[in-house]
């Protein structure tokens, strides 16, 4: 009996047991993916579908193109965005970034932070607003159908009838069928996986009647917090023109201040390409039953034609099949828990969405490449939720692509640290491709993005151990740790190191001037400094003495009775209603992070039980539910882990297209999708300290689980 148990324990520790599946059982991945083909049968503005490649995405309505952008602007907008498309309004007032800096007296010295200034002096406020707004991500263009009805008027969304649209996730194909005045139209839409291009094929008698055209419109950026890609005003503030045209191709140049980019169109068959009005172009097919075209967006002029429809179709099918047959898979077929199918749907669709929206060379924004939120800028504390799941799902290369951002922008991070009187690099919070710091009265004081790089590097090392990877990332790991050690303030009275004052925790409900020792951040500091020391040891370097001083003297986790305080400074953590909202980030201390010597299991269990029963869950965010599931899993509560992932709360809504809906402002929220994937990977594949297989799956006989290719979480 002991040998039997030992045998299966060894199998588990080596990742050989695939859930409750029989040994040798493999997942039919094509069947798994295709049973979650998205099917749309009405004009639902929250059910827009997208194609993309990780650095470029194109979102369509029920016509298979972006025919009705104004109708969709309050749903999931019909955006076209890329990683390279950025713009800034001219700085005609010569604002200086230094005027966005505000000095705070913290821990006995003055420290400057880039903040929004609120009602402060006008000069400071305007400077901060300018640098917060600029640069912003561009909506590159709107490509839709212009359909003429029998009476010569343009069809509206209400005229689109008999809708049947499908997104085949296995091939990346969107097939859209509908009728206009009982005349059928079928549109096939693909996104190229190597070029920033889309391709469409249209079949319809309307082509024969010359009543169906392809429209290209170029919007102007709103400069607002959000940009839906449908601002048709300000024609005089930008310039566009057809700069090249042949029988079956054309190139448009679009210039906005100092930003210029290009659209290249290629079509099969006869057509005319004209400019109808400013920034408004029409591709008018000749009479035929079918029409194919491709349109590519380029940062620089590219005289090579875009790939044909056929080439794009083949490229999409091949690359998506490669994606789905690589890395991990989870199959819940045969489960009797009625929630299993919905959870599996969310998992499959989240893989598709994060691949097209978040798998590029730069950290993504929270709304990906669909529409702007926070001016289109990435939030670096969210990079954990956007990225770690790629490594846990056996696709670490998709995480590692975006890590080059840190090396490229380390000089800016070092400058922030030096300006504030710290060593090492202080990683930006709200930023852009070039690492520019965006003023933020919250973001300037967040610190939980700081250890992320060490976590990312460690995940990469676990996937590819060896000196090559250690040497690739060691300098940034050590510089990250140097800041962390110097940020901790030594209290000579209490003989311990303190984080803060001058901190806003991941739970953004606390005033920075008053806040110190948030529980999650204390544990993250301890884990990351310990891991950085491991990197030194792997490289046969001596341990860093200052890091060890901080590790040995770091404040214990703050407690009140039998529960953890959310921050040591918030002694009213459990009585102030405001502190029962936003992210319950205390869970991150033993959920996102593994068990450390700072942690007491019983105290965390009491904390978990209280938050589960008393939190204002309607005032949370999409990644709070995966984080809760992670903590439940580590506490040995798999039932609660599943309950958390499927909690019936608005911010835990997953739309028909798989997007995590928050509210009318954030109709999509990709940290929720990434968090779901990270949590379920950990629940199925386990974590380093797990002692049972499938630690986050209930053992009640209602779950049948097959798992392949997942990797353990630290």
Q: Work out the number of β strands.
A: 28
Low-confidence stretches: 1-24
Structural class call reads alpha+beta
CATH topology of the domain at 35-87 and 135-324: Beta-galactosidase, Chain A, domain 5
**Which word captures the global form?**
globular
Strand content: 15-25%
CATH architecture of the domain at 35-87 and 135-324: Distorted Sandwich
Widest β-sheet, arrangement of strands: 1-10-11-12-13-20-17-16-15
Query: What Rg is obtained from the alpha carbons, in whole angstroms?
Result: 26 Å
> For the record, what CATH class of the domain at 35-87 and 135-324 applies?
Mainly Beta
CATH level-four homologous superfamily name of the domain at 35-87 and 135-324: putative glycoside hydrolase family protein from bacillus halodurans
Query: On the 0-100 scale, what is the average pLDDT?
Result: 96
Q: Helicity level, as a percent range? A: 25-40%
Q: Give the termini distance in whole angstroms.
A: 30 Å
Number of helices: 19
Major pleated sheet: 9 strands, antiparallel
């Amino acid at each position: 009996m002991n040998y039997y148990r030992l045998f299966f324990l060894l199998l588990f520790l080596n990742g050989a047991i695939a859930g409750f599946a029989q040994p040798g059982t493999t997942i039919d991945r094509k069947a798994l993916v295709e049973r979650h083909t998205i099917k749309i049968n009405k004009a639902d503005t929250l059910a827009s579908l997208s194609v993309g490649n990780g650095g470029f995405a194109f979102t369509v309505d029920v016509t298979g193109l972006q025919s009705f952008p104004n109708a969709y602007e309050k749903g999931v907008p019909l955006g076209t965005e890329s990683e390279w498309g950025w713009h800034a309004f001219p700085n005609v007032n010569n604002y200086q970034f230094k005027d966005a800096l505000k000095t705070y007296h913290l821990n006995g010295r003055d420290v400057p932070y880039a903040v929004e200034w609120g009602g402060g002096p006008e000069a400071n406020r305007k400077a901060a607003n300018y640098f917060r707004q600029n640069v912003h991500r561009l909506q590159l263009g709107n490509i839709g159908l212009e359909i003429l009805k029998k009476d010569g008027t343009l069809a509206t969304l209400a005229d689109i009838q008999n809708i049947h649209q499908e997104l085949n996730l296995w091939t990346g194909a969107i097939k859209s069928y509908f009728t206009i005045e009982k005349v059928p139209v079928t549109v096939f839409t693909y996104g190229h996986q190597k070029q920033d291009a889309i391709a469409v094929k249209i079949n319809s008698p309307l082509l024969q009647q010359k009543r169906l055209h392809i429209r290209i419109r170029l919007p102007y950026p709103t400069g607002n917090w959000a940009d839906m890609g449908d601002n048709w005003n300000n024609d005089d503030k930008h310039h566009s023109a057809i700069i090249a045209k042949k029988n079956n191709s054309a190139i448009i140049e679009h210039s906005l201040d100092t930003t210029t980019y290009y659209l290249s169109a290629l079509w099969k068959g006869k057509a005319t390409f004209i400019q109808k009005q400013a920034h408004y172009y029409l591709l008018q097919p000749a009479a035929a039953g079918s029409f194919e075209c491709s349109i590519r967006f380029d940062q620089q002029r590219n005289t090579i034609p875009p790939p044909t429809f056929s080439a794009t179709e083949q490229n999409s099918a091949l690359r998506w099949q490669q994606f789905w047959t690589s890395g991990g898979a989870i199959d819940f077929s045969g489960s009797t828990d009625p929630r299993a199918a919905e959870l599996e749907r969310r998992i499959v669709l989240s893989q598709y969405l994060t691949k097209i929206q978040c798998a590029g060379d730069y950290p993504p924004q929270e709304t990906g490449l669909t529409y702007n939120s926070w001016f289109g800028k990435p939030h670096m504390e969210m990079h954990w939720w956007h990225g770690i799941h790629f490594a846990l799902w056996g696709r670490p290369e998709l995480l590692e692509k975006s890590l080059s951002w840190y090396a490229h922008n380390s000089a800016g991070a070092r400058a922030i640290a030096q300006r504030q009187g710290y060593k090492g690099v202080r990683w930006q919070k709200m930023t852009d491709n070039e690492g520019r710091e965006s003023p933020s009265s919250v973001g300037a004081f967040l610190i939980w993005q700081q250890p992320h790089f060490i976590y990312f590097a460690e995940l990469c090392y676990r996937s590819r151990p060896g000196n090559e990877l250690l040497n690739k990332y060691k300098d940034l790991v050590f510089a990250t740790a140097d800041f962390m050690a110097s940020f901790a303030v030594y209290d000579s009275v209490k003989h311990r190191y303190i984080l803060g004052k001058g901190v806003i925790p991941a739970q953004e409900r606390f005033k920075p001037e008053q806040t110190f020792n948030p529980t999650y951040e204390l544990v993250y500091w301890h884990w990351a400094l310990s891991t950085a020391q491991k990197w030194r040891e792997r490289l046969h370097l001596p341990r860093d003495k200052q890091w060890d001083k901080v590790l040995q003297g770091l404040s214990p986790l703050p407690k009140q009775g039998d529960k953890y305080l959310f921050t040591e400074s918030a002694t009213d953590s459990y009585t102030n209603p405001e502190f029962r909202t936003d992210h319950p980030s205390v869970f991150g201390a033993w959920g996102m992070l593994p068990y450390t010597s700072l942690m007491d299991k019983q105290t965390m269990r009491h904390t978990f039980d209280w938050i589960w029963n008393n939190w204002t869950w309607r005032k949370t965010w999409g990644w709070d539910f995966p984080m809760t599931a992670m903590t439940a899993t580590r506490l040995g509560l798999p039932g609660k882990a599943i309950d958390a992932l499927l909690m019936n709360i608005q911010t835990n809504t997953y739309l028909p297209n798989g997007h995590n809906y928050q509210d009318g402002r954030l109709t999509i929220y990709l940290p929720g999708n990434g968090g779901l994937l990270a949590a379920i990977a950990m629940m199925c594949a386990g974590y380093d300290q797990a002692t049972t297989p499938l630690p986050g799956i209930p053992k009640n006989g209602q779950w049948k689980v097959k798992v392949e290719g997942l990797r353990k979480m630290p």
